[in-house]
Design goal:
Mean pLDDT: 89
CATH architecture: Sandwich
Oligomer: single chain
CATH topology: Jelly Rolls
Radius of gyration: 20 Å
Largest sheet: 8 strands, antiparallel
CATH superfamily: q2cbj1_9rhob like domain
Low-confidence stretches: 1-9
Distance between the termini: 44 Å
């Protein structure tokens, strides 16, 4: 659905002012934490600087890059070279699928571990108890996130160290990949009054995580048009309107994206549980708001450098279950 740019009450424009304020606060916080992040966020917008930093990183890491034992990977049907070339051309490759046992292991983890409503540390609940959790706190959740998943879930930690994913990341980044974080989260169907587009990122945007970055995404529930399929503009990692590059706002309306790239070049895709894909999130992309079914997704990210801003780490003592200040996620203690 294309957003009407003239409608001041549209979700897109209601979110712009929210994003502007939150982005300024976020920029200040990230700059104080790591001043190099500010330099990256300015210069990584431009392809010349992105290519230059990749060349420098490749030169200085020649001795560090190692060969990975691809035979020990759980992804035995993935052609690494094909994925890397597809990523360079399109910034996107579909079909890096998780085996069913791995999917089930993650689902088992989710069934016994607290997720946190709208990623708020004090709003922990077990997924199957979501309705009761919302009733207790008197709000509707747009999403829920798990924290500290690499240390709590062995299969996710294994995926973050999988030889095939590491080899793809190495070829794409051109240097030794750094695992900058993993993320596991639900998005939920909500009505328009409760919908917060900044929680579900249901608007076109691109990410500036580093001068070069690759993310691996895996659907952990069946995803169709009613359950929040991912949307991406292949090739937009190397093709952006100058105004989009220079603007502080990385959010773009559907109409702007369609006008510049053409609707035929915007790809929306679902898949069965386990379906996976690689993406350079410097491409324009978004999540589609679910209509009737929840969506669970896993993300594993690699980059040249870790600026400390894209992980799911949380102090276990700060994580609380809804309605009980003394109750902690048993796996987080």
């Amino acid at each position: 659905m294309v957003t009407n740019k003239k409608d001041p009450n549209s979700l897109f424009y209601r979110g712009v002012l929210i994003e502007l304020g939150s982005r300024l606060r976020s920029y200040s916080k990230k700059t104080i934490k790591n001043p190099l992040w500010l330099l990256m966020s300015i210069f990584a917008r431009f392809l010349t600087f992105r290519h230059l930093v990749k060349l420098v990183a490749k030169f200085f890491s020649k001795e560090e890059v190692k060969n990975f034992d691809l035979n020990s990977s759980i992804f035995q049907d993935v052609n690494v070279d094909e994925v890397a070339e597809s990523m360079k051309s399109n910034g996107l490759h579909l079909g890096i699928n998780l085996p069913k046992p791995a999917v089930q292991e993650i689902l088992d983890f989710c069934a016994k571990t607290n997720c946190y409503g709208d990623a708020e540390h004090q709003l922990g609940f077990i997924y199957t108890e979501k309705a009761q959790a919302e009733q207790k706190c008197g709000k509707t959740f747009n999403m829920a996130q798990y924290f500290n998943i690499n240390s709590l879930c062995p299969i996710i930690n294994k995926l973050a160290n999988d030889p095939v994913l590491l080899e793809i990341a190495t070829q794409y980044l051109g240097t030794k990949p750094v695992h900058t974080g993993s993320r596991l989260w639900w998005i939920f169907p909500v009505d328009e009054a409760s919908h917060n587009p900044n929680k579900t990122i249901s608007f076109f945007h691109y990410d500036l995580d580093d001068y070069s970055c690759i993310r691996f995404f895996f659907y952990l529930t069946d995803v169709d048009s009613s359950s929040g399929p991912h949307v991406c503009v292949p090739g937009s990692h190397t093709n952006k309107k100058l105004a989009h590059v220079l603007s502080l706002m990385k959010r773009r309306s559907d109409r702007e994206i369609v006008d510049y790239y053409g609707s035929e070049n915007i790809l929306t895709f679902g898949g069965e549980a386990g379906f996976g894909f690689a993406e350079d999130t410097f491409c324009f992309h978004k999540a589609t708001p679910p209509k009737s079914k929840d969506r669970l997704m896993l993300q594993i990210q690699f980059a040249i450098k870790d600026y400390g801003n894209h992980n799911d780490l949380a102090d276990p003592l700060s994580l609380q279950s809804i309605g009980d200040d003394n109750k902690r996620d048993h796996a987080s203690v």
